[in-house]
Structure formats: C-alpha cells, structure tokens
Automatic annotation (TrEMBL):
<comment type="similarity">
    <text>Belongs to the cytochrome P450 family.</text>
</comment>
<dbReference type="InterPro" id="IPR001128">
    <property type="entry name" value="Cyt_P450"/>
</dbReference>
<protein>
    <submittedName>
        <fullName>Cytochrome P450</fullName>
    </submittedName>
</protein>
<keyword id="KW-0503">Monooxygenase</keyword>
<dbReference type="Pfam" id="PF00067">
    <property type="entry name" value="p450"/>
</dbReference>
<dbReference type="InterPro" id="IPR036396">
    <property type="entry name" value="Cyt_P450_sf"/>
</dbReference>
<dbReference type="InterPro" id="IPR017972">
    <property type="entry name" value="Cyt_P450_CS"/>
</dbReference>
<keyword id="KW-0349">Heme</keyword>
<dbReference type="InterPro" id="IPR002397">
    <property type="entry name" value="Cyt_P450_B"/>
</dbReference>
<keyword id="KW-0560">Oxidoreductase</keyword>
<keyword id="KW-0479">Metal-binding</keyword>
<keyword id="KW-0408">Iron</keyword>
Length: 422
C-alpha cells in the first residue's frame, strides 16, 4: 500500500492496532488497507493496544450481523464505544454514581425498548412527511448559500455541517439563535480526539463538554415542563416511565443523542457524498440524467462514508464466532466501514455506484439497535442533492480534503471546492 510516497506493508497485528488509533480514520487508504487485511486473514482478531482494554475486532459483514442479532448475548453496556481503559473506568464510576451519559447507545433491554419508544413516533413516516417541507426549505437555503459564496467554499465547514443541524434544531423546536453553541458542542463531543476540534486532551476537559451539554438541556427541560409545546424537546422533557418523569441525566442524555447523532452523521454523509461525486464524474452525470436513482444514490453515499465507525458489545457468556471463542466479559468491536466494503457481500465494493442495488450496508446498524433516525437521514441527504444537482453546472476540488481523527463518528472536516451553481 502506498501512503504518500512510501509503500506500506502491514502485518495483521499492525492492522488491528490501527483500529484503536483515531488518526487511522482520517486516512482512508490506511483504514481500508487495514480492514481488508483483517477480513482476509483474521476476520475476528484480538487487539491488545496500549492504554486500551483488549478487544476483538469483528470485520466481516455476516459476523457483525450475527453479533447484532444476538443482542441478549452481546450487550451495549458497560462499554458501548471504544475508549481507553482509563476513560472506561471513569465512565463506569460515573454510571454507578448516576451522573453519566446514558443514551440509547448505552442501553440494553428492557430499558432500551422503553426509552426508544419515547422518541419513536417522531421518526415514523407520518412525522417525517410533516417535517419534509422544512427539510426541503433548508436544503434550498444552503444551495442558495453556495451561490452567495461566489463559486468557491469549504463545503464541509460552510454547508454540510450547517444544514443537518438546522434540521435537528427544527425537530427539537430550538431557536436558530442556538446554532453556534450547538455546533461547537457537537464538534467538541465527537471531535475529542481531533487536535482541531477538541476542547482539551484530558478526560476532565472532555467531561466538561458533556457537562456543558447537560447544562444547556437542563434549561430546555425546565422551559418545556413549564410550557409544553408541540416538538420533540417537549416530548422528551415530559416523558414518563411507570408514572415517573425521567431523571435529569436521562433527559439530558436523550437530547444529546438526538442533537449529536442526528447532526454529525448526516453532515459527514453529505460532505462525503459530494466528494464521491466529484471523484466519480461519470456517476454524477448518471445521477443528473436519471434523477430517479436518487434513493439508491443516497444509500450508496451512506455506505461509502459510513459515518459511525464502530460500536462495542460485551459478551454475557462464552460465544463461538467463526473459529474464535469470545469469553464472557470480553468486548467485540463491530467495524461498520469494514462490513460495508466486504467483498463477500458487495460486488466491487470499492466502486462508488449510484445505482447499486441491492445495497445491504450496515451503516445504520441492525436489529433492536437499528438507528432511530435512519429515515430522517435519508430524507435530508436526498433533499439536499435533489436541490443541488439540477442546479450544478460544474464542480471540482479546490484543495486537499481532510477528515476528522476519531474512532467513533466522523468524516470530512474540510472539503474545498470550486463550482458553478445556478
């Protein structure tokens, strides 16, 4: 493999260690070289990285599906995301003290099922149809913004990061004046491993970002309980389980997962999708000539980018997966970028194909933990490109794209482009 001007040959162990390094996910070539090697030679590989509790990297599509199906064997708790051992311990201590982030990502049944139901109606087809005019209005606003920028911009920073956050603010019923604060907090939360976005490198500084989120949403909860409104924020603030309202941390956690997961994943897909169209002009031409392909193109963009890089699952008992026994208490990392380039599932997986059908990508997960906002994400991506592509006359890169360093959620943080839009 060529990185820069050098040829790099990875060993299986090096490929496994790369998955615990946030910088790997900012280098597509290194990431996919590592994952392809693991799929080929060690599809379930034990990773013993410095500062991390050992885990099993699961890289094949069918194995990830199996783990997702066995949700009573493989739990989200206590380690839903890859983190250092020190941070895992701190998170466990906070959880035991009742002061930890506890989103749907952190939960298992029966709590997961009950908490998921609180927001489920807001993401059903009827609710999505009601929101769609606002999504289309915002899509037009940001394509118009491209025109205002005069034919050159950093698309990731000036367009892609803004549009989905305004959609989420609309869904929650938050004022547009809160945009800057929410953008900063979401970037700091998901960009905690990136030198540009992190507030600080220490665990204490990362915790402060979360506490700032909680402080903002505590004020929102108080306001919606005093004066309920017809929005998702009010539904969360006034939700009850067994006759009791959610506690402050569970309420704030619900807001956090909606505001962050519904924003960063979609902005990454829109920026990465446009980058793919620029790099594959024949696909852009095909989509322009056959706009009916847009639903397929949206899923191909989602597969191509795969904004969520991993989730962790912990075994409740010994479990045989392929030729490996994952012991009780051991963790498995489900590598979604790997599943979505699996040669056994996707024909020519490294080809960007706006007409790909079927497209069995796992970017939204699978089973009981399937992404609650998947339909909204598809609507947003579709609305944006349905507005942009008929108005797009030319487009090219105006600089080198850059990706965020992360092991969880991310994509392009910079996409300089030069274009002509009507």
């Amino acid at each position: 493999m060529t990185i820069g001007s050098q040829r790099m040959t990875l060993t299986v162990d090096e490929a496994g260690l790369a998955l615990a390094d946030p910088k790997t996910y900012a280098d597509d070539r290194l990431l996919h070289e590592s994952l392809a090697l693991l799929r080929r030679e060690a599809p379930i590989h034990r990773v013993d990285a410095p500062e991390y509790t050992p885990f099993w990297a699961v890289t094949k599509h069918e194995d990830i599906l199996e783990v997702e199906r066995e949700h009573q064997v493989f739990l989200n708790a206590p380690r839903p995301l890859l983190a250092t051992t020190e941070l895992d311990v701190m998170n466990q201590q906070r959880a035991e003290a009742g002061i930890a982030l506890r989103t749907l990502v952190h939960m298992d049944d029966p709590d997961h099922r009950v908490f998921r139901a609180i927001g489920a109606d807001w993401f059903r087809p009827r609710a999505m149809r009601a929101l769609e005019p606002r999504v289309k209005e915002l899509a037009k606003r940001y394509v118009d913004r491209m025109v205002e920028l005069g034919g050159e911009c950093d698309f990731a920073r000036e367009i892609a990061v803004h549009f989905p956050l305004y959609v989420i603010l609309s869904l929650l019923g938050l004022p547009e004046s809160d945009f800057d604060r929410m953008l900063r907090l979401t970037q700091e939360l998901f960009g905690g491993d990136d030198d540009e976005f992190q507030r600080g490198a220490s665990n204490e500084e990362k915790l402060q970002v979360l506490l700032d989120f909680f402080a903002y949403f505590q004020g929102l909860t108080d306001a919606r309980r005093q004066n309920p409104t017809d929005d998702l924020a009010s539904a969360i603030a006034n939700a009850s389980i067994d006759g009791e309202r959610l506690n402050d941390f569970d309420t704030a956690s619900y807001y956090v997962i909606v505001a962050t997961a519904g924003h960063d994943t979609t902005s990454a897909t829109i920026a990465g999708g446009l980058h793919a169209l620029i790099e594959h002009p024949a696909q852009l031409a095909q989509l322009r000539d056959a706009p009916g392909l847009m639903p397929l193109a949206v899923d191909e963009m989602i597969r191509w980018v795969t904004p969520v890089k991993e989730f962790m699952r912990t075994a409740t008992r010994d479990y045989d997966l392929r030729d490996v026994t994952i012991r009780k208490g051991e963790a498995a990392m489900l590598s979604y970028p790997s599943a979505n380039r699996d040669e056994d599932v996707f024909n020519d997986p490294f080809r960007f194909d706006v007409a790909r059908d079927p497209n069995k990508h796992l970017a939204f997960g699978f089973g009981v933990h399937y992404c609650l906002g998947a339909a909204l994400a598809r609507i947003e991506v579709r609305a944006f490109f349905e507005e942009l592509i008929p108005r797009l006359r030319s487009i090219e890169l105006a600089g080198e794209p850059e990706s965020i360093a992360t092991t969880f959620v991310g994509g392009l943080k910079s996409l300089p482009i030069r274009y002509s839009v009507d």
